[in-house]
Write a structure and sequence with these properties.
2 domains, about 350 residues, 12 strands, Diaminopimelate Epimerase, Chain A, domain 1, six-stranded parallel sheet, alpha/beta
Length: about 350
């Protein structure tokens, strides 16, 4: 058994365990929670999956209907006490996208860079394409048998968060893909991978296309509805295919706030850093260099006298310009510009 797994089990044994995702969980978060639940069950530990908010219906419904995933809204878990343990997946505590509960947060498994330090009894943060990759690594590094359902769900999470291996992919993601693919149900994987939007999303998609605005390579799109994660991400990816666009931001209503999806075409425009800087003081955000997400809760700005759309646009434009300025300074530290000899 690897040291990492020994440490994880030592922290959780003797407690009721809850696996908590970030608020409004996406396929990778739920797939990771499902896989960790199966891993812990192998060692005789029961765990419940929990989250806060709502879920994108189309992109996750297969996890519930095909694979029997159970997940509970944390506000409905009245039995939680400080003796219970929470381990977060696909997120890190101290960010505002993780709901606080009465239970004690003891662990974290995540693939995003750390932006809000928190003291854990167990911490496994490795930057890669998906959190599902890390969960799969626990199985394969410890020669633990994996059933077809678990392999399929984890591969789905890996596929979704890397956009079919086109962003943020590392060697570990590729290794886990090879091992998961050999064990998965390819027919079920194909079905849940294709079901990302519902028919009712089409009207929202049509209207959202008319809101696209582009400023110096930065594209914005607002969806005037409580749209699914799949729809928000699809629009964000679509804008990035435009030759005029280097950086894209799509956002929509979600619960009592706004959910953001961000994409970048260039390494120096780090999506995670840019959204974190842009939403500072309004909400929270983070992610990878090429893909990130965030959230603004309206209660954070209810007394602010601002034009919210203008504020959002200005904040992102300034954050992108700042990243561009840093790149230019690094490439031309003396400010000499182009020198001809």
């Amino acid at each position: 058994m690897t040291k990492r797994l020994e440490e994880l089990l030592a922290v959780l044994r003797g407690h009721m365990v809850y696996i908590q995702t970030h608020n409004f969980p996406d396929p990778d978060a739920l797939a990771s929670a499902y896989g960790l639940q199966k891993l812990l069950r192998h060692f005789g530990l029961d765990a419940k999956v929990c989250f806060h908010g709502t879920m994108a219906k189309a992109s996750v419904q297969g996890l519930f209907s095909m694979f029997g995933l159970e997940a509970f809204e944390v506000d409905e878990l009245e039995e939680l006490t400080s003796d219970d343990c929470i381990i977060t997946v696909d997120c890190q505590f101290n960010n505002t996208n993780v709901q606080r509960t009465a239970a004690t947060v003891v662990g974290c498994i995540d693939h995003h860079p750390t932006t809000a330090p928190f003291t854990y009894s167990f911490r496994d943060v490795r930057v890669c394409g998906s959190c599902a990759t890390l969960i799969a690594d626990y199985f394969f590094s410890n020669d633990i048998d994996m059933d077809v359902e678990t392999a399929t769900v984890l591969l789905y999470g890996l596929k979704m968060d890397t956009e079919s291996f086109s962003r943020g992919v590392t060697d570990l993601d590729i290794d886990m893909f090879r091992l998961l693919f050999a064990r998965c149900d390819q027919d079920k994987l194909k079905v849940i991978s294709h079901h990302q939007m519902e028919f009712e999303d089409l009207n929202a998609y049509r209207k959202a296309l008319g809101t696209i605005k582009i400023y110096d390579g930065i594209a914005f799109c607002f969806i005037d509805s409580d749209a699914s994660d799949g729809l928000v991400a699809t629009l964000c990816d679509f804008m990035l295919t435009l030759v005029e666009v280097q950086f894209s931001i799509a956002y929509a209503y979600r619960g009592n706030g706004l959910k953001f999806s961000v994409r970048s075409n260039f390494d120096y425009l780090d999506a995670g850093n840019i959204i974190s800087n842009a939403l500072e003081g309004l909400g929270n955000g983070g992610g990878h260099g090429t893909m990130a997400g965030g959230y603004i809760d309206f209660k954070n700005i209810e007394e602010a006298d601002i034009d919210l759309e203008e504020e959002i646009h200005n904040r992102f434009i300034n954050a992108v310009y700042f990243s561009r300025a840093i790149r230019e300074a690094l490439n031309d530290p003396l400010g000499l510009g182009t020198v001809s000899f």
